[in-house]
Structure formats: C-alpha cells, structure tokens
Amino acid sequence: KAGVTQTPRYLIKTRGQQVTLSCSPISGHRSVSWYQQTPGQGLQFLFEYFSETQRNKGNFPGRFSGRQFSNSRSEMNVSTLELGDSALYLCASSSADRAEAFFGQGTRLTVV
Amino acid sequence: ELKVEQNPLFLSMQEGKNYTIYCNYSTTSDRLYWYRQDPGKSLESLFVLLSNGAVKQEGRLMASLDTKARLSTLHITAAVHDLSATYFCAVGYGGATNKLIFGTGTLLAVQP
Known about the structure:
Chain A is mainly beta. Chain A is built from no helices and eleven strands.
C-alpha cells in the first residue's frame, strides 16, 4: 500500500514568488492536513481538508491557502513568499476522524 | 487554545539506561500520538493512545496516557544508539477533526 506522497521534495524560490505543493494521501483516506515545521516554531498546523472542504485552519496569514480535489489529493499554495516561509511542509492523511495520521516525506522549501 | 508541553527538550543518555519523556497538555483530549523524526526525515508514527489508562509497548519504548492528569509519558528501557532521534507528542482536538497540536519535541541522543 503506497504511503503519503508529496511533491516536489525540494524547492528553491525567490522572495515575492508563489509556490504550489502537492500531496497525494493514502488510497481511501479522505482527510488531509498540512503542517509547517521550522527550527524556531516547531510543528504548526496549517489547515485540514475533508471531502474537498476545509474543516480547520491554523493561525497563518491569508497568503497560505489550500484545496482538495475529488480524488482527495490536496495542494497548498503560498503567495508572495517571504524568507520566513522557508520550512519543511508536511502533509498527513487519515482514514477517518480521530484516526492515526500518516505523514509524507515533506517538501523542503527554501526562500532566497 | 490547546497547548502541549514536552520535556525535556534535550536528553543525552548512555546505552543501557532508562528514561522517561513527559508530555503535558492544557485542555481535555482523549487522543494522543507519539511520533519519531530522524534528521531530515518525516514523522514516523509510534503510538496512538485513545483512552484513559492506555498503555502501548513496542520494543524498548512504552507509552501511556492519563487523561485526567492530561499527561502522557514515553518510557525508554535500556536505550540503544538506534533510538537516537527527535520524539514528538501530539494531541488531538475533540470533535470531527484530525487537527493535531504538537509538543516541542525531545531530542534524544544515546551515547555508546
């Protein structure tokens, strides 16, 4: 059974640009959550999608957005990139509410 | 706002010794997760604790949950070098959501 797949694995972007990250959950999982991991702030919740609907959003500016498609694949977008957006972005999928969350390998974003 | 405190932040221990990592959280929750992260890698699920008094063991690691005290522990028995990693606890919100709030992580270094 394939795990959670995130693409790309690495990205280098310039300040002011925008970026789109992709996450394919485990087959059959309808819940996808996104987290940002930085050395200073640790692991922070960005948002959660379930059946194409955003159920929860963390305390991030509106530059951070996401969506989920009918096949449960999810994308997150960050516009007008700032240096502080450099981080490891992790996606997790779950089979049901309150179930175990399985994480992808992450996308390491570097903003220069 | 749910807050999760983990201690210690850093733990250096010798092979063969025992130690415990503590995870305290601020509001009621009935589910807690432990993850392991190796440098540059994603999060590996270790334990899912879903009820008061739950205890789970895998190899040299044992996790427990006391929902009344809002406390979970991860006990390491007879540590070996392969256990060196960062360990995170994560607490789930109530209701229909898979949103997790993570602790700060404990960097475990097992010295030969």
